[in-house]
């Protein structure tokens, strides 16, 4: 395990594991602990799913698991269960703020700019009285 990555510890995993969906069909599911650690890491750092470190597994698996569980309400059920058995006096904040801006919104000055005519800039005679 590399440093700087998020990994669920044993206590956290013990609280989450009983609330995971078990009615899965098809091929064997990837390690839930690793996938959930990857989901939490990606939500904490705010990066694109495609940039997920390989230590957590394929980014498509991590994104698909997050997306499917969100649509089926599994995350809501997990959060509610964890809130019921949570510690008193602990304040948590979840912020999902995102603001879309044009890709060049951060560059250049805004507003109107008065430009001098090329003739005035060179010092030539004015053609009007303004």
UniProtKB/TrEMBL annotation:
Start and end residues of each Insertion element IS402-like domain: 8-79
A Pfam family the protein falls into: DUF4096
InterPro entries xref list: IS402-like_dom, Transposase_6_like
Region (Disordered): 101-130
This protein's name: Transposase
Organism, scientific name: Bradyrhizobium manausense
């Amino acid at each position: 395990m590399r440093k700087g990555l998020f990994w669920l510890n044993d206590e956290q995993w013990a609280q989450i594991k009983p609330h995971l969906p078990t009615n899965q069909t098809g091929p064997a599911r990837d390690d839930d602990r690793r996938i959930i650690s990857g989901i939490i890491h990606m939500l904490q750092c705010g990066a694109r799913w495609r940039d997920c470190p390989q230590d957590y597994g394929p980014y498509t698996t991590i994104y698909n698991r997050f997306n499917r569980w969100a649509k089926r309400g599994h995350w809501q059920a997990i959060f509610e269960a964890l809130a019921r058995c949570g510690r008193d006096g602990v304040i948590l904040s979840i912020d999902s703020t995102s603001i879309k801006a044009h890709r060049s919104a951060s560059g250049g000055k805004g507003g109107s700019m008065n430009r001098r005519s090329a003739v005035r800039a060179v010092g030539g005679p004015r053609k009007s009285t303004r």
